[in-house]
Design brief:
The chain is mostly beta strands and 75 residues long. It has 1 helix and 3 strands, in the order αβββ. Strands 1-3-2 form a 3-stranded antiparallel sheet, with no helix packed on it. The longest helix is centred in the first third of the chain and has 9 residues, at 14-22. It is globular, with a radius of gyration of 14 Å.
């Protein structure tokens, strides 16, 4: 828990997510995927200093196209 009492944050954006993962500050993730390939771009997670293992909690399909998966960090 943060000194201000915060214990949940919404983190978004490739570089921001990578920074939080590198600092081992992500305990839970929700990843949504769309069936559209745009090519190029930056990898979502990038290189990590160590192996991070997450366990799938739930997956659901939204609007017949979007796949939303919820993961919890295994420690």
């Amino acid at each position: 828990i943060h000194s201000n009492g915060h214990f949940k944050l919404y983190i978004d954006g490739g570089r921001t997510i990578q920074s939080f993962l590198e600092a081992d500050l992500i305990d839970e993730m929700v990843i949504s995927r769309l069936p559209i390939l745009i090519g190029g771009g930056s990898p979502l997670f990038g290189d990590l200093p160590k192996f991070l293992e997450f366990e799938l909690q739930q997956t659901e399909v939204l609007l017949s196209h979007i796949v939303k998966s919820h993961y919890i960090r295994k420690k």
